[in-house]
Amino acid sequence: MLSYKDLLISGPEAFCLANKELIIIKHNQLLCSMLGKEDRDLNGENLLNIFYDDSVIQRFMKQDDHNHIYQGECLLKTEIGTPLLVKFRMGQIADDISNQILYFIAFKEIDELQRFAYSRRINALKSILNSVMAMSIKPEEILNDFIRAYDQHAIAFIFDPNSNEKDFSKNENHALLSRKSFITAQIALHNKMAIFYHDEYLWGFFPIYSEKEDYGVACVRFSIPRWYDDEDKKIFLLCGKIIGSYIERDISPDQSLNFDSLLRLSFDNVQQPIIAVNRKGLITKVNDAVKAVYGYNDIDMLGKSFGEFVFLADTSMKYDDLLNSVLKGNIIIDKEMTHIRSDLSIVDVSLSAYPHRLDDGTIIGAIFIIQDIGQQKRLMDRMKKMEKLSVLGELLYSAANELNNSLTSVIGHSEILSFMSGSSEISEITSKIYNGSLRCGSIVSGLLDLAREAQKGYASTEEALRLALDLKNYQLRSNNIHINIHVDKYIPKVLANLYDLEKIFLHIINDAEQRMLEYDNGGMLNIEISTNEKNVVVCFTDTGTCLLKQNMNEILTSINNSSIYNDYINIGLITACQILEKIGGTMRIESQIGKDNKIIMEFPSAPPIPYEICDTEDEFLNKDTVTVKKVLLVDDENDIAELLQNFLQKQGYTVDIANDGNEAINKVYKSDYDVIISDLKMPNGFTGDKLHGFVKRKNPVLADRMIFMTGDIINPKTQKFLQQIKNHYLEKPFSLEALMEMIKQIIG
Hints:
Beta-Lactamase; about 750 residues; 27 helices; 27 strands; single chain
């Protein structure tokens, strides 16, 4: 378990502390900057609310052992709505003062990690390799060249561990350090480890030693605070060993510096692939990291031409040309190429090549340092897709109100026209307008459903499937994909939110569609909904390309496993699994090459809901017998206001119209109304929620009889208001019949 002391030296990450109720009680300014929020926005906020998908937290809470650090990737909500892809690590932390157990979670932006961390490490390795090949460089130069790869303005120096603390402080550079730094440096040397800690600056210490002797400690004061992980620490230790070998050569000049041992250090202590070849281009040495990128063992590669393995996919430069250039003494820096792996998949790499020299300067081969940039590109593509989706969401959000207002007017007028018309031809045309408008309204509503905040409850899998197919039917038909649906009788509802189910089904259908389109001739999608003793079972069977994973856990595990290369999974399928895990469902996949793919999901069934039984026959007959006499209609859209006024007047009601909240409150104080029908979004700042507050002060009963109309249902403030007041509301577009049914419910 971590302590506050551990937290202080953990690095300059964005972090927060939350109590057992997951309420944020402390955070740093870096988290505010990362999310674009103020302190007051985060203080007291529920930790789950800063995540786009809180399954990462739920997964941690389900663990039996909270003493271990849980880490992975997730999406955070920023103030402007753009999703932010971050790495996180989470664990328990002990408060030294109160002994209270808190949850600690730290974040680092993926974008920054992938864009800069790789380049820093590659440049640091290049500086080390240059030092190994130069042979005449001084230890201080090696250190400074190495540190500049990480931080151009850092201060670096070497001190003798045998000097006492007094002598240590007299040195100009040593005087920069505190007593704690002096002790930390000695610990780094004694334990042969790289240590970083923060006071006013970020400090780093790593030992300078060889196989025979300890020679000192490298002290670095960084100008830029950033997080250095275990891979960085290995590279720092490697630099310390290289510098120690050069110091040993200076102390014992009669002993020649063993180039192969230095090269072996460079090969075996880093995670970047390194390959050495002789003048014929044949591979003489590879490190373990090569297998992770290319899939080959050293036995497969040694003694063979490097070009046989990786250069076949690249046409910009042939292997022989590149090798000849390096053998002439040239250095190739950061050349982007596409290489082939052992499984015939491709990987994007950045390659740097150096001449391999002997002590007398003779070039005996070449050394290649390779950086896998494929994963970085995939992450950047993922971020771009997220940003595009966010922009589309903002456009949809702003356009929804206008679309829904217009559709409400069209649906209502066509509904009235169908009753007024005497001609069968006009009635038929009117009916088509009405049905087409309802279809448009259903599509807009379905799109908005995908952005809703999920609320717990009972939902129908059949209804969720219908909503998903409403959005996909036309596209599936256009792509020659046929759908067969079979639903058993008496399917119970499930313990989930309707819109969560819709999202899951939509992602599954999209994934199946993309895989079927790889065959260029469409396909077949069979959907079955059945039930067993405890669960509702939904099975999607498609004729697309083979799915590689076997279940939900494999898919969720793969997104946090950075060692998996070119293991592409549709992001929609990942999202479906994350939602499915959150609601307690399971998934298994039955897939074989050349056969159908089956995705089988099970959802927990909801218990049966008891029927409401009327006590007497009179009670049943007397329902809906009260009539409403006077209605106040509040809407700034004249078309909708006039439509509803005409309709309600024909139903026998007296209707007054107010164009905004100010006019409405004046009418409420002058007249008595039985029902108020009000839009939520109105001009002049006097919105429907404020009108409700004024009405409640004058007439609480009338406030409870307010019906709200809104096309802005995905707005969190709108949802919060409607949940608090418990009033009836209509989502635009709506039918006049739906309005009348709601008025009857209020009467009852």
